[in-house]
Design goal:
The protein is built from six helices and no strands. It has 134 residues and is mainly α.
Length: 134
């Protein structure tokens, strides 16, 4: 620090020093409040992210409806929130399966290719040919 600055501090009255300390304490409290709010916002975002990932992993159709049916407070106060969420989602999927998408069936290369003929034409050209034969 500058020597002149330090010498100037010696000439301050006790009331001025008390006022400066009071102002510093008020600013400190304001910053502590902002820090607390930021930590709470971060915790909410983390919880929302965990919920969204868990619901998406099980093919949830409506995140809002599924979240409304979950006890999120109990889930996020558990030791392992992700495991608690998975268990709760599995239970909800058994009870309310309509909230979750059906699993996509595996690809079958022979599906739909059979020996049966179509009773009605499938293309525009075949429709025209059928009309012209009549």
């Amino acid at each position: 620090m500058d020597k002149a600055f330090l010498e100037g501090l010696g000439s301050l009255t006790e009331e001025t020093v008390a006022a400066i300390l009071e102002k510093a304490q008020q600013e400190d409290l304001a910053w502590q409040e902002k820090l607390t709010q930021a930590e709470q916002a971060h915790a909410r975002q983390r919880e929302e992210m965990i919920l969204e990932q868990g619901i998406s992993a099980l093919g949830g159709r409506n995140r809002k409806a599924i979240t409304a049916l979950l006890d999120t407070e109990a889930i996020f106060t558990a030791e392992d929130p992700q495991a608690a969420l998975q268990e709760a989602l599995q239970n909800l999927k058994q009870d309310c399966g309509y909230l979750f998408a059906d699993p996509i069936p595996p690809f079958s290369p022979g599906a739909g290719a059979g020996d049966r003929e179509l009773k009605q034409p499938a293309t525009l050209a075949s429709v025209l040919k059928a009309r012209m034969k009549k």
